[in-house]
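Sharing a chain and its predicted structure for anyone who wants a worked example. Both blocks are below, sequence first, tokens second.
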Amino acid sequence: MAVPKFFEFFPAVLRSLLDKTEKTVKQIREEAADDLNVSIDDRKELLPSGRQRTVDNRINWALTYLKNAGLVCSVRRGVYTITEEGIRAYSEVGNNLDLGFLNRYESFRIFHIASVQNPSSDKPQSPPAEDTPQDMFEKAYQQINAALSEELLAAIMERSPNFFEQLVVDLLLKMGYGSSIDSSGFVVGKSGDEGIDGIIREDKLGFSSIYIQAKRWDPSTMSIGRPEIQKFVGALAGQGASKGLFITTAQFTKEAIHYASKQLAAKIVLVDGHQLTRLMIEFGVGVSEQSTYTIKKFDSDYFDDTIN
């Protein structure tokens, strides 16, 4: 079961407040999530930004929409109660209280003007969007990164295997592995690689190192299977290594993933093409910044007279 959409929380939020008491946002979140039987695992889900729980974000937006429709009101910072109109609305439609119902309120239409036609127009109004503005922003962000990931993979496939090996070393250094040590990351020459494509030295004397295998394989037609991982484990044993990173533009089979997870002599980390490009975007390897958007929120503390 997925986390309900923000508008699916409308009835649950109002039910939480039907007793006409004043409740904190935290109380409303817990009661609304319980009301809709949101599972423990779903409550742990984070937004793509990783900064807030999805369920908290959606209930926050539900409160914002209901408040702008006049069905709930904020009595003080972070505390809400239901209005008489909220009681009447819930009595009228109950679980059918949705975005279309809120659209009958002028205050809501003004708030949601970006999703509707001119409220003064005689033409039929468009229904409000079923995603919050932040949901739409997060989806657009994901779509942009998905397109960028495809572009990165295509560019990598046009370059040589040596270029890819150097890219992997550059990425690990950007991620902070061995970055404080001169010449801490390097590509191993083909003549004597013995199944190792690169090495990251984590300390100055080389007591701890990460050994890398990098496979630039076509992600549309090829997968890394168990035999390739077995060869890599053998190469690590030959180096007396305890840490190995197998990174590829393609993907791994279930057998390969299972085999890697069972290794005790060495810790094996597998990174497929999807994870590779995500890390490249996150740590700025092969990409440059085009635009920066800062999303700000209302600072209720600034307006709280009780804070000295």
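Comments welcome. Strands lie at 23-24, 72-76, 79-82, 185-187, 198-201, 209-215, 223-224, 243-248, 251-252, 267-271.
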